[in-house]
Amino acid sequence: MRIGLILNKGIYCLTIKLVKKHTIRVGCLGTFGFPGGFYVYAGSAQNNLKGRIERHLTKNKKMHWHVDYLLHYGQVSCVHTYAAEKNAECVLSQKIGNIKDAVMPVRGFGSSDCACASHLYFFQKNPESRISRLKINGISPPPLTPPTRGGGNPSSTQIGETFPPP
Question: Distance (Å, rounded) from C-alpha 6 to C-alpha 36?
């Protein structure tokens, strides 16, 4: 795999498109209705950020993190990575939650290891233009746009590179 920006650890956000409403059991959090639209999830990886993102882009996997349950039904449309420590994950989540029209769909989603209310936010309209302007430590990340189902190979794409290439 080629990596344009090699980060062993850092934080990230995933923009996930859910085409239609689904009722989803999210591990021990319970069962929730997720309307069709866009979800933005903030996460971190303190070892092997690239591997964590690749895992999120894989469809067939063991359900481990809360976001895995949503990703079973949704499609990642964009990934942003930041070179930052774990505590910046909560800062990123709060910045996403402060974007106009952000709705917290599930309390405790992705935030079982911190005091945040949630690390998942719902938007009826694609928030990507607003997400791409978020800065952590004064730095805006380049987006990583995953391929559509059946197209492209994320393992041959650089972080920060749009795929398929324009």
Answer: 34
